[in-house]
C-alpha cells in the first residue's frame, strides 16, 4: 500500500460528502495504491452510515474505524495504528483536495524519500470573511502558503499544517506519535476544546531528529470555514488557550514573581493593553482586534500562573 489517508471526524457528517467527492475526483492516480481511513471520534450523528454508504456504493477504498477516547491526537494515533501505507497522510473533514493532490503527494515522497510533506491550505471563500479578519489572521483559520516553488522546509519556521500533512511511516518508529495531552477535543466550537500545539510539537520533534521536510504548492487543499470560526470569541479563545498551554509547558522555577506570576509577564501584558488602546483610537475596535488577541494570550498566561503552585 502506497498511501494511507486518515480523516478524523466528530459529529461532522455534513462535511464528509464534499470531502469524499473530491477524493474520488483524483487525476493520474490509477497506479497509486491508497486507502482512506475515517476515524470516528465518538460521533453521535450519521457518520458511520455515510462512510458505509461510500464503502458499499462508490469506488473509494474507505474503512470506518471508531475511537472512543475524545481528542484529535487520540483519533490520529488510532488511525496510524490502523494504517497499512508506506506514507501516512492526514486531512480534516472540512477539507477539499485539488484533483492532483494525491499524485503530487505520491511523487514528492518518491522523488525525495523525505520524512514529511506539506502543501498549501487555502480558505475556501476568503471574500466572505468579516472585515475585521485581516489577511495576517488567516493562519488561525488554517491557511498555509509557502509560495509558488517546491522547496525544502526546516521543520521549525516552516512545517506542514494538520489539514494537509503527510509523513513516512518510519517517522513514527523514530519519534513516536502525537502527544495526547495536546490538540483539539470535540468539535472545537467551545473554548475548552480549542487547544492546539500537537502538530507543532510533532514536527519540531521530527526536525530535532534530523527529519527531511518537503513543500509542494500543487499539494493544494481548500478549507471550509465553519460559522463559529468567524466569531471573535473563537480567535480570543485560541489565543487565551495558547497562553494557558505556554504556562503548562513551562517547567522552570521563577524566583522573581508577584502573586505567583513571573515579573517578566507584567510589562508584556501592559504593553499589549497599550497597543490595543492606541490602535483602537486610530482604527476602531475592529481594526485593533489583532492586538486584543494578544491581550487574551497574556491573560491566559496570568490566569494559569496564578492557579499553578510551583515548588523550587
Description:
The chain folds into two domains: 3-230, Alpha-Beta Complex (Spore Coat Polysaccharide Biosynthesis Protein SpsA, Chain A); 232-307. Helix 1 (13-24) runs parallel beside helix 2 (47-57) and helix 7 (232-248) packs parallel to helix 9 (289-307). It has 312 residues and is α/β, with parallel strands linked by helices. Strand 1, helix 1 (13-24) and strand 2 form a beta-alpha-beta unit. Helices cover 39% and strands 19% of the residues.
Keywords:
312 residues; alpha/beta; Spore Coat Polysaccharide Biosynthesis Protein SpsA, Chain A; 9-stranded mixed beta sheet; two-stranded antiparallel ribbon; globular
What is the topological layout?
Elements: E1 3-9, H1 13-24, E2 34-40, H2 47-57, E3 62-66, H3 72-82, E4 87-92, E5 95-97, H4 101-112, E6 116-123, E7 151-153, E8 164-168, H5 170-175, H6 198-208, E9 213-223, H7 232-248, E10 257-258, E11 261-262, H8 265-287, H9 289-307
Parallel strand pairs: 1-2, 1-4, 2-3, 6-9
Antiparallel strand pairs: 4-8, 5-9, 6-8, 7-9, 10-11
Helix pairs in contact: 1-2, 7-9, 8-9
Please state the oligomeric state of the protein chains shown: single chain
Structural class: alpha/beta
Strand element count: 11
Radius of gyration: 21 Å
Low-confidence stretches: none
How much strand content do the residues show?
Answer: 15-25%
Please trace the helix and strand order, writing H or E for each element.
EHEHEHEEHEEEHHEHEEHH
The biggest beta sheet reads: 9 strands, mixed
**Estimated helix fraction:** 25-40%
- The count of domains is 2
CATH superfamily of the largest domain: Spore Coat Polysaccharide Biosynthesis Protein SpsA, Chain A
Class of the largest domain, according to the CATH hierarchy? Alpha Beta
- CATH topology assignment of the largest domain: Spore Coat Polysaccharide Biosynthesis Protein SpsA, Chain A
Average pLDDT score: 91
Amino acid at each position: 500500500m502506497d498511501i494511507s489517508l486518515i480523516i478524523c471526524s466528530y459529529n461532522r457528517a455534513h462535511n464528509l460528502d464534499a470531502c469524499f467527492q473530491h477524493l474520488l475526483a483524483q487525476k493520474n492516480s490509477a497506479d497509486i495504491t491508497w486507502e482512506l481511513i475515517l476515524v470516528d471520534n465518538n460521533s453521535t450523528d450519521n457518520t458511520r452510515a455515510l462512510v458505509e454508504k461510500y464503502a458499499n456504493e462508490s469506488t473509494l477504498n474507505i474503512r470506518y474505524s471508531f475511537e472512543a477516547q475524545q481528542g484529535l491526537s487520540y483519533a490520529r494515533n488510532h488511525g496510524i495504528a490502523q494504517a497499512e501505507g508506506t506514507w501516512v497522510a492526514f486531512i480534516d473533514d472540512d477539507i477539499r483536495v485539488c484533483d492532483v493532490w494525491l499524485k503530487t503527494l505520491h511523487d514528492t515522497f518518491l522523488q525525495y524519500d523525505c520524512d514529511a510533506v506539506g502543501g498549501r491550505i487555502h480558505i475556501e471563500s476568503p471574500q466572505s470573511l468579516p472585515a475585521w479578519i485581516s489577511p495576517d489572521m488567516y493562519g488561525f483559520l488554517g491557511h498555509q502558503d509557502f509560495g509558488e516553488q517546491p522547496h525544502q522546509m526546516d521543520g521549525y519556521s516552516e512545517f506542514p499544517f494538520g489539514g494537509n500533512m503527510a509523513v513516512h511511516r518510519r517517522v513514527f518508529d523514530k519519534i513516536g506519535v502525537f502527544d495526547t495531552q495536546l490538540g483539539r477535543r470535540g468539535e472545537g466550537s467551545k473554548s475548552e476544546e480549542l487547544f492546539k500545539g500537537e502538530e507543532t510539537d510533532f514536527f519540531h520533534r521530527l526536525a530535532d531528529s534530523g527529519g527531511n521536510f518537503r513543500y509542494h504548492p500543487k499539494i493544494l487543499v481548500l478549507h471550509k470555514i465553519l460559522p463559529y470560526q468567524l466569531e471573535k470569541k473563537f480567535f480570543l479563545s485560541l489565543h487565551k488557550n495558547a497562553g494557558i498551554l505556554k504556562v503548562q509547558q513551562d517547567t522552570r522555577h521563577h524566583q522573581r514573581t508577584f502573586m505567583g506570576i513571573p515579573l517578566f509577564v507584567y510589562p508584556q501584558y501592559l504593553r499589549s493593553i497599550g497597543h490595543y488602546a492606541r490602535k483602537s483610537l486610530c482604527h476602531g475596535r475592529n481594526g485593533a482586534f489583532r492586538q486584543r488577541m494578544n491581550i487574551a494570550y497574556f491573560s491566559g498566561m496570568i490566569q494559569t500562573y496564578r492557579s499553578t503552585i510551583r515548588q523550587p
